[in-house]
Amino acid sequence: MQTQPKASHFIDGQYVEDTSGELIEVVYPATGEVIAKVHAATPAIIEQAITAAHRAQKDWAKMSGTARGRVLRRAADIMRERNHDLSVLETYDTGKPYQETSVADATSGADALEYFGGLAGSLTGEHIQLGDDWVYTRREPLGLCVGIGAWNYPTQIACWKGAPALACGNAMIFKPSENTPLCALKVAEILMEAGAPAGLYNVVQGMGAVGASLVTDPRVDKVSLTGSVPTGKKVYAAAAAGIKHVTMELGGKSPLVIFDDANLEDAVGGAILANFYSSGQICSNGTRVFVQKGLRAAFVKRLAERLGTAVIGDPMDPETNFGPLVSARQMEIVQGYIAKGVAEGATLVCGGERLDKPGFWITPVIFDGVTDEMTIAREEIFGPVLSVLEFEDEDEVIARANATEFGLSAGVFTNDFTRAHRVIAQLEAGTCFINSYNDAPVEAPFGGMKNSGVGRENSKAAIEHYSQLKTVYVRMGHVEAPY
Ligand code: NDP
């Protein structure tokens, strides 16, 4: 497959290059080979993108919602038709196994385009009768939205932000992570092909500095970031200076609580889905696995057995279900945490070896005997490291699960349904699961509480974050003024 894009950026309906921008080498995580080179956006490129987006947005907003939605739904169809190629590219960009990318990335992006394309025609304000007078509200777009993505889901993030933004009549400039610059360019191409006007959806490459200059530009009305909490704090502060709208999808250290009456195989399966998909590089992962005392030994034994059957190897092989980490830097971060876990007294049950081959490979890790104050139980690792923590009763585990700055996700496994709902109601997290983990259908709101974020992606809730209401009071009689 040709992995080198025609040019670094996609602006005003075409590929655009400016080689004076800093060089970014795109590395295939499975081999460490350079598979493409792009350049970071220069101020001239950023200016071009903002000017094009601004112009395109005005006409796009004048179209009916149904006509806008038709473009998005056509783009969804094209994405599904090209799922194979897009999935291969996603695997090159991220290293995630094709077995995953072929069902979770372009497909999820297409779901967002289809869902918000369907909603676009039914976006309305309301009518409020006040005697003879009345008020109506107009649901208007925000204008120019900037999307900034993390590297774990480059296609999905580009669509989860782009689809609701465009459905509501906005334009978008999307900046992918410098680690994974390839996939969003394809999303831009497909939207154009589906009939989006030139300039409506633009992609510019670059590091944090490019994101920062987009966020601070006074012509930008909204910023939607998917990234870590420290970056989120910076971007939120910069957006606040311009009173811009924000969506912040940030990191997590989510609890997965397994009671001793749970179905063991389901709980183990849930813990696997909560920790090892995408080699653990998922924001919502349930990395603090609290297991009730009576079940802990059996749980750890069965988890290790099942993890032993993971197929680690060539991500393009459809049999492979565990791939490398995204970069050498991320691998070093994860190795650092594994070393800390051992040094602080956790029991390394299995995994943590670096495979003796090129690329960024670490085998999946189970730590047992983890306690709340250990670094691996407090900080987001963003790698395949599962920590088992033992608990005795419900009140204790709720307090411990909530003792974190994060609040992205939480899960409960139990066969006692009253308890399941009681516990979930008390967990401080935005996206929760009962006897399941990490499902993210487009119909359901997704996002975090506490330091894990602001706003929600997906579902009808996202509409509130990409549109604003204008209130219009209509007086039907004469005006009575005091003087
Ligand atoms: P980072 O926070 O390092 O980067 C996120 C994005 O922000 C990147 O595109 C980055 O550019 C850009 N950026 C960095 N600094 C600035 C700045 N000052 N102004 C504007 N943009 C900036 O996150 P990672 O890419 O390392 O992704 C991993 C993190 O993302 C984890 O914490 C994870 O939990 C979180 N995440 C959250 C999700 C959610 O939905 N809640 C989903 C997926 C991931 P560059 O990379 O080029 O430096």
From TrEMBL:
Organism this protein belongs to: Puniceibacterium antarcticum
Aldehyde dehydrogenase domain mapped to chain residues: 15-472
Alphabetized GO MF terms: betaine-aldehyde dehydrogenase (NAD+) activity; metal ion binding
Keyword Metal-binding on entry: yes
Protein name listed in UniProt: Betaine aldehyde dehydrogenase
Keyword Cell inner membrane assigned: no
Binding residue positions for K(+) 1: V27, D93
Entry-linked InterPro entries: Ald_DH/histidinol_DH, Ald_DH_C, Ald_DH_CS_CYS, Ald_DH_CS_GLU, Ald_DH_N, Aldehyde_DH_dom, BADH
Gene3D superfamilies the UniProt entry points to: Aldehyde Dehydrogenase, Chain A, domain 1, Aldehyde Dehydrogenase, Chain A, domain 2
GO biological process, one term: glycine betaine biosynthetic process from choline
Enzyme Commission (EC) number: 1.2.1.8
Gene: betB
